[in-house]
Structure formats: C-alpha cells, structure tokens
Amino acid sequence: MQMDENTSRIVESLRQNPAAVQALFQSRDGQALLRMLTEGDRGASLQKAAQSASRGDAADMVRMMKQVMQSKEGAALVDRINKTVRK
C-alpha cells in the first residue's frame, strides 16, 4: 500500500510542477523511466495516461508506475526518482 501512496504522491507532485516534469525527463533516470513506460506500445498508453492525469485522473499513471515497480530495476528507479522529487 505504501508504494501506491508514494506513486500517487510522485504523480501529483509532478502534475503540479511542469518544470519538475521537464527536469525529470531530461535526467538519466527520467529517460530510463520513459523507456520502461513506453515499451510495447510506442507510448500510446503513456500518452493516454498523461491526458487523463492532466484532467485530474491519475489512475492510469499510477497503474503504469505500479507495473514498472514490479521489477527490481523499476522499483529502484522509482525510489531514486521519488527521492529527487522530494528535494
């Protein structure tokens, strides 16, 4: 349950701060996250999730982040991003 709360917090924090989103996705960890989120469907799911999040519905984005965190590499990546976002 804590991962869900952390993921929601990250998504909400980024949604409220577009400059943080840009900085995140220019970072090495951000690029790695983008690769993980766009695997398989060339980013179609990520685009849909981002559109929903921009309207205040972060459920798809949270689901995608939970999927990323199922792998050891993904969980470590999200942990590093979470620490960066909190700064």
Q: Please work out how many helical segments DSSP would assign.
A: 6
Structural class: mainly alpha
Number of DSSP E strands = 0
Helix content: over 70%
Globally, the shape reads globular
Average pLDDT value?
83
Q: Enumerate the spans where pLDDT stays under 50 for 5 or more consecutive residues.
A: none
Please tell me the total number of domains.
1
What is the rounded Rg?
12 Å
Distance between the termini: 23 Å
The percent range for strand residues is: under 5%
List SSEs in N-to-C order. HHHHHH
Largest sheet: none
Please characterize this protein's 3D structure.
This protein has 87 residues and is an all-alpha fold. It has one domain. 82% of the residues lie in helices and 0% in strands. It has six helices and no strands. Helix 1 packs across helix 6, helix 3 packs across helix 6 and helix 4 crosses helix 5. The mean pLDDT is 83.
Topology record:
Elements: H1 2-16, H2 18-26, H3 28-38, H4 44-54, H5 59-68, H6 72-86
Helix pairs in contact: 1-5, 1-6, 2-3, 3-6, 4-5
Keywords:
87 residues; mainly alpha; 6 helices
What's this, in brief?
With 87 residues, the chain is mainly α.
